[in-house]
Automatic annotation (TrEMBL):
InterPro entries to which the protein is assigned, alphabetical: Glyco_hydro_43, Glyco_hydro_beta-prop_sf, Glycosyl_Hydrlase_43_Enz
Keyword vocabulary terms for this entry: Carbohydrate metabolism, Glycosidase, Hydrolase, Polysaccharide degradation, Xylan degradation
Keyword Flavoprotein: no
Keyword Oxidoreductase: no
Coiled-coil ranges (or none): none
SUPFAM superfamilies listed in its UniProt record: Arabinanase/levansucrase/invertase
Species annotation: Rufibacter tibetensis
Any single GO BP term: xylan catabolic process
Protein name: Beta-xylosidase
Taxonomic path: Bacteria, Pseudomonadati, Bacteroidota, Cytophagia, Cytophagales
Site (Important for catalytic activity, responsible for pKa modulation of the active site Glu and correct orientation of both the proton donor and substrate): D529
Single GO term (MF): hydrolase activity, hydrolyzing O-glycosyl compounds
Amino acid sequence: MTTNSGSSAQNTKSPQENYSAYLFAYFTGNTKEEEAIRFAISNDGYNYRALNGNQPIIPSAQISSTGGVRDPHILRGADGKTFYMVVTDMVSANGWSSNRAMVLLKSTDLVNWTSSVVNIQKRFPGNENLLRVWAPQTIYDPEAKKYMVYFSMKHGEDPDKIYYAYANKEFTDLESEPKQLYFSPTNGAAIDGDIVFKDGKYHLFFKTEGQGSGIKVAVSDKLTEGYVLKDRYVQQTTDPVEGAGVFKLINEPGYILMYDVYTKGRYQFTRTTDLENFTVVDQDVSMNFHPRHGTVIPITAQESEALVSKWMRAEDVLLSAQAQEIKKINVAIDSTKKTLRLPVKAGTNLSSLNPEFITFPGIKVSRSEGDFTKGGVNYTVGIKGQEPQTYTVTALEARNPILEGYFADPDIIYAEKTGRYYIYPTSDGFNGWSGTYFKTFSSSDLVNWKDEGVILDLPKDVSWGKRNAWAPAIIEKKVNGQYKYFYYFTAAQKIGVAMSDSPTGPFVDSGKPLVDKFPEGVKGGQQIDPDVFTDPKTGKSYLYWGNGYMAGAELNEDMVSIKPNSTKVLTPDRTFREGTHVFFRNGTYYVMWSEDDTRSENYRVRYGTMTSPLGKITVPANNLVVAKDPATGIYATGHNSVIQVPGKDEWYIVYHRFNYPKGITMGSAAGFNREVSIDRMEFNQDGTIKQVKPTHEGIKPVKL
């Protein structure tokens, strides 16, 4: 057999054909619709494509007692051709101590599955105070010549412990009463066990909770007893993790340890050769889905072909374009019109562009003559057992979004010290805006941006706020003849400030919040979204902030404290929500803000004017700066900043929007899957701002 690790050390038989691909079984979240078994496949163990459009391959209601299943573990049997899968029978909405059962599944082709529910409390006496049964897995015991199912259980006030029992020959029931396999010596919880057989030893990866939390490993010479703890954590992140899964790479010496970074909505992959030392390889990993607690096994070309024939679609193949020139998260497909739009990076040679579609056994992709400079190119996708599908594929240079990946709330400056532009965004793409770090990007032309890395990491660098890294702002100031950078940021719904001698950091936090209370007279909203502005008339600097209200105050010369009694509430009108930004042009102070909610497609930017940095705001009759454009699929254009090209009356607006094209289909999740764009901003002769048309094309490189 092979364990989920892919190890073949215990095989009694093996397939005639060598393994050539990987199958990933997973679920996707905590709603009932997400608590179901899904499949994805990969050619290399790093890059995975969801099958069946990332929809369940088996309806949970047909196989479970609760209507939902989680934590799928898949195993190839000892005969090399039978497959076993076990899942937690649970709906999280009923509570984390609400389930007593697991589901056992069996298949001979990975496509058709039989299933049985095993309720531990009903099946075995003595479990009256059983609260939950979690994360079952299966391994073949060569001594007992049986399949052993192991899982965690919690009884009453006791911590979760890992138990095991043997399945019957039909794999429809547990034939033996659960016995304790392992408990944490710290008397904390031990859950999510994953046993890997290597070099004659069984390595039990598990998650511990209580006194410390993370993934540890216990090792034994025997499958069912004698596990000795190696008392150190093996996850390579400070974020909470669960669901460790280890698999052997095909025809390579290494293993992958992957786990669910569940508070951040992402998976992390690490590589190891000895199950002792682990290196993060996230940069090599890609998925078109967001898995939760899953497992991977190697499969043959024949098995891959069967899975593809059953569950792969032509659209899935076309959406897999991997060419470096393509902005992958912005690829748009229309299954009705049979078209595919490939946005490419600035400077791409369209005459030689090869999309590099990922294929698997059973898939053939062919293209018509011509290239992308002449318009559409026809691609025909043939999948075994399905009618061939032909799509017209176009490629065009799309400079928006300007940053690769999910980012929001951009603040932009031109640094005199370096002669470069810098964007400081919120790191986005985390469920519920749960990001904890800030990055910066630099450019010489406002089009080509370099990732300068993390400049402030809340868990490591900020003592008073470890969560919700949001909406920063920065300013360059000369202090005693030296350039200094003051970085204002949101952490845990408070505003702090950090300093650096360089626009790329490292930044050092002041050690305490700068703003953590409501201004006088304000009773609702949040202390977030700072903006910093230096008045070119006086050299004085000002801080603005607020959600639900707009406040402003003068900063002291040290730039890390607020001048006493200078705070004013400046809320312009009912359209104000958040995202204040102030700039100066031709004697006028402009103040911009965002209207509506960042999760709304109608999130947009408005503006007013002031005669002084903390003066009364005058709101023009037509004050909309940028808003959605449904005709081009651009929505939720908001939380902006602006930049003036040094020495010129040439202005650009930098803002975020929903991801294109998926954002508008994501519901409220679109509000934390945002992208940064830049477009030209122009003024009328009377100084009023012309409404900006948001574009995919973006701007051409700007020369200083």
